[in-house]
Amino acid sequence: MKATATAIPEVLILEPTFHGDARGFFYESYNQRAFEAATGLRPTFVQDNHSRSLKGVLRGLHYQIRQPQGKLVRVVQGCAFDVAVDVRKGSPTFGRWVGVELSEDNHRQLWVPEGFAHGFVVTSESADFLYKATDYYAPQHERCIAWDDPEIGIDWPLQGPPSLSAKDAAGVRLADADVFEPTPRSL
Ligand SMILES: Cc1cn([C@H]2C[C@H](O)[C@@H](COP(=O)(O)OP(=O)(O)O[C@H]3O[C@@H](C)C(=O)[C@@H](O)[C@H]3O)O2)c(=O)[nH]c1=O
Fold first, then answer.
1. Which residue, 3, 57, 88, 166, shows the most beta carbons closer than 10 Å to its own?
2. Burial class, 41, CB count within 10 angstroms (exposed 0-12 / middle 13-18 / buried 19+)
3. Alpha helices in the chain, H assignment, sequence order
């Protein structure tokens, strides 16, 4: 497994060792020891999620102000543009975003740490997302930032207006949002 830092150093791209042969392929989609060796991190994952979305569906930008979730995200069918936004109060990269293409072909995973808002848009006919999370879903603590907040300025690869849930259509600007307050030593 190879880890590569993005423009926000805590957000990492993970590339598992891929074994293709005449039968098809095999790879370890998660190996705690390899993840720790590549990243220096040892998250405890308590929830696995699977979502399917059609082309042009945009989900996000979501985070939990308490019970923050670190997420290890990948696409096993299709292709999507996956985004992490730093919403950690006091962070030197507060309000900045990174975006990475995740697809069934590149087998990339994105590590979205606690204190980051997460979202994606599907660029293929449909996409299946699988992701692991370090804490449980807690809707009372969930917040949603507008995908098109001009102060964040995410350059989404969209060909028209995205399909949004009612919750995501009502997302607020980061300037008006409750942000994540990290403990002093976690920044
Ligand atoms: C996120 C989540 C939703 N649900 C339920 C609530 C609701 O009835 C239904 C759909 O929920 P949502 O519309 O919030 O699903 P969705 O918009 O896919 O939410 C997800 O978006 C991406 C970007 C993330 O980063 C995830 O952590 C999560 O917030 O599933 C759970 O039971 N457990 C969960 O962990």
1. 88
2. middle
3. 32-39, 166-169
Quote the radius of gyration of the chain (alpha carbons, Å). 16
User: Greater confidence, 107 or 185?
Assistant: 107
Where do the domains of the chain lie? 45-186
- Asked if 165 and 133 touch (Cβ cutoff 8 Å), the reply is no
SS3 of 32, please?
helix
pLDDT exceeds 90 at position 169: yes
ipTM: 0.99
The answer to whether the CB of 119 is under 6 A from ligand 1 is: yes
CATH code given to domain 45-186: 2.60.120.10
Its pTM stands at 0.97
For a ligand 1 pocket test, name from 62, 102, 129 the mutation site with the most ligand atoms within 8 angstroms of its C-beta: 62
For residue 51, pLDDT beyond 70:
yes
